[in-house]
């Protein structure tokens, strides 16, 4: 076996750990779309819940529509170009939103269509900028660590994305509580700083040959053949037996291989040589793993299956996260004649912190679970999709039952956990299904899916909430509506939308089981034709 390349840093070397920590920092600055200042923005600009959801969705569209673009750049040119754009977009986006908030509108008027369009554009920029930095961070981490640790390390970086809302919300509460303008300034400066640090420290660290997912099988087979036929083989034990070698053996330069078929001696017929080379090429492809991209990706049924599942689940999570502030305020306002906007904001902040912390935890937890399922039990990570879908379904059932704002944190915790697990799991599932070579580009296309579910469910939530605005002219209703377009009917304001998302999540459970079954069937088919060492006597 060839000696290790001294130019390649070790698994726990300083360059590799530096990339991991810098990527984590960039991720913390990239997930700020999930911070909650929407109710305050709506009150300041006198816009409806439907308009507010469109502004929030613009950020989500910025995240997911830019995915293929950033992914392609990262795959070809590395992370620095997206990190540079991330700095510009995040700075301009949050500065623009702060400008509109500070300017406000008179109490008896609404935001003009032009200004609403500009506000939507600023929101879009925050999403696109955050995703630019995040894509560079995740890609660099995925390429810097071997498969056995990939889900755990990328899950750690993904967890930073989930922790972002909690980090910035807590920091703002400590430095300037209740000051939304300063909060937006913190978002503009803080996110820009993380991308500057990442620009200089985030890069993909090459792996040793034994740890790469793609192996030059032809070279390995040629070397084995040369060894096999350069000696007299009276004693077969002298010949290197690769079939059935344990995973931790020194001959690990053929990862995940249960055996190889060595070509017969050159003295055999040309037809057999051609047949052997053809079979070697097929084994080469099997051992390298999938490499699906471009047109082949869009024609692959597994891509569309994952696309639909991700759209259903992420759309549910986005709907809840974008509107949890409005949900908490609706529960707080019901039967409360002394509506206190400051107190309502505290309940809103509680939900944001809960979601963010559980989002963070879910991204780490699912990485550990999926790695354990694969490494210990030999099962694909796609089995974990059923767990994720079930968490989402249970979260919607729980949210529909809660009628007191003091208990809403339970649903927020479950939604945050589920949302963290889906985005902690799907990137590694994308690698398993379609390969690592075009991972960022493929993940970018797959991550277009949340725009479908996110737009559908969020707009449905906004229209549902607007339809339940108070019509009576009671003093309490007038007082509350003066602060914002506030529904006073508690969970009745939005429970119909939870029924829609709950049904969708149940369908996602079934589709997740189908995806896991399809992956298992493919692996079983591959295992049934696994090559083995074939011993043939040379013709002398």
From TrEMBL:
<feature type="region of interest" description="Disordered">
    <location>
        <begin position="260"/>
        <end position="287"/>
    </location>
</feature>
<feature type="transmembrane region" description="Helical">
    <location>
        <begin position="494"/>
        <end position="517"/>
    </location>
</feature>
<feature type="transmembrane region" description="Helical">
    <location>
        <begin position="155"/>
        <end position="176"/>
    </location>
</feature>
<dbReference type="InterPro" id="IPR011701">
    <property type="entry name" value="MFS"/>
</dbReference>
<feature type="transmembrane region" description="Helical">
    <location>
        <begin position="303"/>
        <end position="321"/>
    </location>
</feature>
<feature type="transmembrane region" description="Helical">
    <location>
        <begin position="81"/>
        <end position="101"/>
    </location>
</feature>
<feature type="transmembrane region" description="Helical">
    <location>
        <begin position="182"/>
        <end position="202"/>
    </location>
</feature>
<keyword id="KW-0472">Membrane</keyword>
<feature type="transmembrane region" description="Helical">
    <location>
        <begin position="382"/>
        <end position="402"/>
    </location>
</feature>
<protein>
    <submittedName>
        <fullName>Major facilitator superfamily domain-containing protein</fullName>
    </submittedName>
</protein>
<feature type="transmembrane region" description="Helical">
    <location>
        <begin position="113"/>
        <end position="134"/>
    </location>
</feature>
<dbReference type="Pfam" id="PF07690">
    <property type="entry name" value="MFS_1"/>
</dbReference>
<feature type="transmembrane region" description="Helical">
    <location>
        <begin position="443"/>
        <end position="461"/>
    </location>
</feature>
<feature type="transmembrane region" description="Helical">
    <location>
        <begin position="20"/>
        <end position="37"/>
    </location>
</feature>
<keyword id="KW-1133">Transmembrane helix</keyword>
<feature type="transmembrane region" description="Helical">
    <location>
        <begin position="414"/>
        <end position="436"/>
    </location>
</feature>
<keyword id="KW-0812">Transmembrane</keyword>
<dbReference type="GO" id="GO:0000329">
    <property type="term" value="C:fungal-type vacuole membrane"/>
</dbReference>
<dbReference type="GO" id="GO:0022857">
    <property type="term" value="F:transmembrane transporter activity"/>
</dbReference>
<feature type="transmembrane region" description="Helical">
    <location>
        <begin position="349"/>
        <end position="370"/>
    </location>
</feature>
<dbReference type="InterPro" id="IPR036259">
    <property type="entry name" value="MFS_trans_sf"/>
</dbReference>
């Amino acid at each position: 076996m060839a000696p290790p390349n001294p130019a390649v840093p070790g698994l726990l070397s300083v360059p590799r750990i530096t990339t991991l920590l810098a990527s984590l920092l960039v991720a913390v600055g990239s997930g700020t779309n999930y911070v909650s200042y929407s109710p305050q923005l709506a009150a300041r600009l006198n816009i409806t819940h439907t308009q507010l959801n469109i502004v929030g969705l613009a950020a989500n569209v910025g995240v997911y529509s830019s995915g293929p673009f950033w992914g392609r750049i990262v795959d070809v040119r590395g992370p620095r170009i997206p990190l540079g754009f991330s700095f510009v977009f995040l700075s301009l986006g949050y500065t623009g939103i702060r400008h509109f908030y500070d300017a406000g509108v008179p109490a008896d008027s609404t935001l003009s269509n032009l200004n609403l369009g500009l506000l939507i554009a600023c929101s879009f920029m925050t999403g696109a900028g955050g995703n630019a930095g995040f894509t560079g961070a995740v890609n660099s981490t995925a390429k810097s660590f071997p498969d056995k640790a990939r889900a755990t390390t990328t899950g750690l970086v993904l967890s930073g994305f989930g922790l972002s809302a909690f980090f910035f919300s807590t920091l703002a509460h400590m430095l300037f509580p209740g000051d939304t303008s300063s909060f937006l300034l913190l978002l503009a400066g803080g996110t820009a700083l993380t991308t500057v640090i990442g620009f200089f420290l985030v890069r993909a660290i090459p792996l040793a040959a034994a740890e790469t997912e793609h192996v030059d099988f032809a070279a390995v087979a040629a070397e084995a053949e040369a060894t096999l036929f350069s000696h007299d083989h009276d004693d077969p034990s002298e010949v290197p037996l690769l079939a059935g070698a344990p995973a931790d053996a020194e001959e690990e330069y053929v990862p995940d291989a249960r055996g190889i078929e060595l070509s017969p001696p050159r003295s055999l017929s040309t037809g057999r040589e051609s047949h052997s080379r053809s079979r070697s090429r097929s084994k080469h492809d099997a051992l390298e793993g999938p490499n699906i991209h471009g047109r082949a990706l869009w024609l692959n049924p597994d891509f569309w299956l994952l696309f639909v599942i991700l759209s259903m689940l992420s759309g549910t999570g986005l709907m809840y996260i974008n509107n949890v502030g409005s949900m908490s305020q609706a529960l707080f306002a019901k039967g409360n004649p002394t509506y206190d906007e400051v107190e309502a904001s505290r309940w809103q902040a509680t939900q944001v912190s809960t979601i963010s912390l559980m989002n963070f935890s879910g991204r780490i937890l699912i990485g550990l679970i999926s790695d354990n399922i694969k490494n210990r039990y030999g099962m694909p990570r796609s089995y974990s999709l059923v767990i994720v879908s079930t968490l989402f379904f249970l979260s919607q059932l729980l949210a529909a039952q809660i009628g007191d704002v003091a208990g809403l944190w339970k649903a927020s915790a479950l939604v945050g956990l589920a949302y963290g697990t889906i985005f902690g799991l799907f990137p590694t599932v994308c690698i398993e299904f379609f390969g690592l070579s075009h991972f960022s580009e493929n993940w970018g296309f797959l991550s277009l899916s949340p725009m479908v579910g996110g737009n559908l469910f969020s707009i449905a939530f906004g229209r549902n909430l607007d339809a339940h605005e108070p019509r009576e002219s009671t003093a309490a209703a007038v007082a509350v509506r003066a602060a914002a377009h506030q529904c006073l009917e508690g969970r009745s304001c939005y429970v119909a939308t939870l029924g829609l998302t709950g049904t969708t999540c149940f369908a996602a459970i079934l589709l997740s089981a189908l995806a896991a079954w399809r992956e298992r069937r493919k692996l079983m088919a591959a295992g049934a034709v696994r090559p083995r060492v074939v011993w043939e006597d040379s013709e002398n």
